[in-house]
Amino acid sequence: MVYRWFVLFLLVSITAAGCAGAPGSTKSAATPELTVMTHDSFSISEEVLAEFQRQCGCEVKFLKSGDAGLALNKAILTKEAPLADVLYGVDNTFFSRALGAEIFDPYASPVLADIPAELKLDPGNQLLPVDVGYVTINYDKAYFAAKNVPVPGSLRDLTDPRYKGLLVVENPATSSPGLAFLLTTVAVFGEEGDYTYLDYWRDLRQNDVLVSEGWEDAYYGQFSGGSGEGERPLVVSYATSPAAEVYFADPQPAESPTGSMSAPGETFRQIEFVGILKNAGQPELARRWVDFMLGQRFQEDIPLQMWVYPANPDAALPELFTVHAQVPPGPATLSPDAIAAGRDRWVPAWTDTVLR
After folding, report:
1. In this structure, which CATH number among 3.40.50.1010, 3.40.190.10, 3.40.50.720, 3.40.109.10 belongs to the domain 4-133+270-324?
2. pLDDT tens per residue, range 288-338
3. How far is CA 236 from CA 3, 214, 224, in A?
């Protein structure tokens, strides 16, 4: 996820950390170069990158390649002559497709011993878990306080006429959180029975749900809470968004102006992975980079850089996360194989139901 609050910070970080490496580096013809392909939301602090480059005696180049799906497509299309040594950013919505493309070399990093078993979705160690995010509904605290209306407590509540015209979601065909929210509804309501996920979306449409093409328009353009400039007090976003609202405010408030819903089983857990590409030009450096990404130094840099949780439980969280963000209990579960089998059916069915 990318917040407008830190676009400038992100650009500075990536510009300094990208093609040129760490500040003050003196790249020579003899300096080996590691290329890491990422999605556009990747970020790393300058000092953490510089630390790795000192350790490896190398330069790191980041090849930003669009969203997770586009980055994976690029890696698949160039697998015979890979553009990078490492791919970071494949998540569990594209997991089976990524493994099926056979573009990764397995690597059982010794640091995997520190990662919880529930995040290790690939027993072959082609894709190793790096971080975890939670897609959920965010709400504008001031709106509900002023209107004396209770914050919805469940997904089903969102179909109540009290919340008519209040919700904005992202299109799952064009947005990662939009797809995650659609998958949540599939997991919660299913495809068969008296009330399916499509029945739920029909009810949301009847309740005047608004669909935006992407997260940025939904959050900044349509949402009324925090830094949003719209009129709708409910939006599909992330469980860490309230913490980001505090972090990027000047001055920082004691309490976030937004909150997130966390009904058990009604949020979606996104796990992001890293893998070493076959035919990588720098396989040894690639293995060292994977170890570094799973290690405590990089893991503790993740929260305030990419606004997700580290996969390594030994990584300390910033106080901002412990106070203003929460890990939702019991997120909705769909296996990567189920997602791979159903995604191309669910998205068109959603389009026919909601947009036509």
Report:
1. 3.40.190.10
2. 999 999 999 999 999 999 999 999 999 999 999 999 998 999 999 899 999
3. 14, 10, 12
